[in-house]
Amino acid sequence: MDLREFTPKLFTLLKEGISARQISRDLFSGIIVGIIALPLSIAFAIASGVSPDKGLVTAIIAGFFISVFGGSRVQIGGPTGAFIVIVYGIVQQYGVEGLTVATFIAGFMIMLMGFLRFGSLLKYFPFTLIVGFTAGIAVIIFSSQIKDLLGLEMGAVPSGFIEKWAEYGRHLTAANLYAVLIGLGTIAVILLFTRITSKVPSPLIAIVLSTLAVYFFQLPVDTISSRFGTIPNTLPMPKFYSVDFETFKNLLAPALAIAMLGGIESLLSAVVADGMIGGRHRSNMELVAQGGANILSAMFGGIPATGAIARTAANIKNGGRTPISGVVHALTLLVIMLLAAPLAGLIPLACLAGILVVVAWNMAELHTFAAILRSNRYDAAVLLVTFFLTVVFDLVVAIEIGMVLAAFLFIKRMADATSLGQMFDAQTAGDSPLFEDEFGKIPPHIAVYEINGPLFFGAAQRFFDALKDLGDRHSVLILRMRHVSIIDATGMKRLEDLVRLLEGRGVKVVLSGVSPRIMDDLLKAGFIDVERMQPDMEAALKWVSELSRKS
Predict the structure, then answer these.
(1) Residue 438 has pLDDT above 60, yes or no
(2) Rounded distance, CA 61 to CA 16, Å?
(3) Cα(32)–Cα(203) distance, rounded to whole angstroms?
(4) 496 pLDDT tier (thresholds 50, 70, 90)
(5) Which one of 90, 130, 381, 485 counts the least CB within 10 Å of its CB?
(6) Of 192, 214, 528, whose CA–CA distance to 352 is shortest?
(7) CA 80 remoteness from chain centre
(8) Is residue 221 a contact partner of residue 349, using CB atoms and an 8 Å limit?
(9) What's the pLDDT tens digit per position in 18-40?
(10) In degrees, to the nearest 5, what angle opens at C-alpha 335 toward C-alphas 237 and 60?
(11) What is the sign, positive or negative, of the torsion defined by CA atoms of 512, 513, 516, 522?
(12) Measured between alpha carbons, how far is residue 367 from residues 55, 79, 130, 139, 362 in Å?
């Protein structure tokens, strides 16, 4: 086992040495990212159906742990928009206590993924699926913010997408004009200041302006404190959970959903970060750290955490290059919570809704969505199905069906890519001058065919059907397999069926160009001996010629 694979990046960098100049950059970047994370952590918690302090606790505890023990140099951890859909659904069905236990279980699952080296496997998750469910999550986040964005006086928002919009429609005439102005103003400020400067976080500017407006003009809009009370200015004491089998069984599916999404998003964020800094993260160590972070987050009453792509990108753009910036980000949030938590209660909910609308817009990645739609019908089908199922049903169903659909369509494309080429068949195709220029005159009783691509269950039957009637015209079949990279059990069985069928009709089957690995498999299968597997076409023709002389 390579121990470096499970060594946190921070430990490696400290051993190698970090310059004072880089430390100062990390300190600056960490403070900026901490300020950026403040409104997002609160907004994600509220949108998830829990109190705002849980978002802060998650960003502090999980963010600190991920930076110290993670496998990425620049990853920033904490609550993210992608979890809103899952967390809200779990809270609706199992309550906050159920969410905490599910997060606790999910933490162990993610750690296990890391120790089992699943990090590399999660990288093979189809990109179209990720874009589809991310765009679906973006639509759900936007939909969940309409109540606060318009200041609608209504009860609990239904969790179903269609039911939610139907309820909005019934209360639309009671929209609060002040809330609408604050929400739209927040969106405008974020978009404007993002273009003007990146030094000061635009969501922070929007929060300060909207909070001052509500406070000084006493605008009749909901604030954090009016709905949730004062945000505590202390961290809760950790609580240890003992999960019995019945609870584990009930919360297994939600926990698995948290673990899968957390693992995928954290590694996706790490890959994006690698591309921005030219680095390489340790995927399995990152999963172990993400798992530990979720366990600790649950113990402190937090919500699920993962790598946050937007905050990680902000960290890089502000000069962060080591995990020190992530640690400073968590400590910055802790200081703000200890010293200024009550002030956060003055933030209008319409402002947070406006921030999340911008987050949803950025998550949707419409240019990528449109590009995939234009690419090919298979990818477009996976994208649209995953998107639709995420919006109308839930993320777990979308991922399950999307993965199955992507797998089936991939099999279809691989089967279509596998071809059986007729290289020489004097009985049906006439002479092939180019082929004969290379190998000399081919006797008419010999047919030469070549398989291009993997011989697997998707293409095996087509291969068998194309050659099964060959015995009526020839006494020898040379099957070139130099371009066959793999052969599965179904392909092996159909090849065996073909060999036995043709040899029963007196046709000798010779294979050429078989790779060593496939040759071993064929010898173990026992239906063809080693002398009928020749290294190339020339050797196969020579063997057939010698066989003819002997007979």
Answers:
(1) no
(2) 26
(3) 12
(4) very high
(5) 485
(6) 214
(7) 14
(8) yes
(9) 999 999 999 999 999 999 999 99
(10) 55
(11) negative
(12) 30, 25, 14, 15, 11
User: Which token pair is 171?
Assistant: 């209360």
pLDDT at residue 435 is higher than 70: no
How many whole angstroms separate alpha carbon 328 and alpha carbon 26? 8
Interval 292-344: pLDDT, tens? 999 999 999 999 999 998 899 999 989 999 999 999 999 999 999 999 988 99
Rg of the chain's alpha carbons, rounded to an integer?
Answer: 31
| 100 Cβ contact list (under 8 Å, min separation 6) | 241, 298, 301
Contact 323, 64 (CB under 8 A): no
CB burial of 90-128 (b: ≥16 within 10 Å; e: otherwise) equals bbeebebebbbbbbbbbbbbbbebbeeebbeebeebbeb
Measure the CA–CA gap between 136 and 118, rounded to whole angstroms.
26
Q: Do the Cβ atoms of 288 and 40 come closer than 8 Å?
A: no
- Using CA atoms, how far residue 4 sits from 73, 248, 390, in Å, is 14, 33, 38
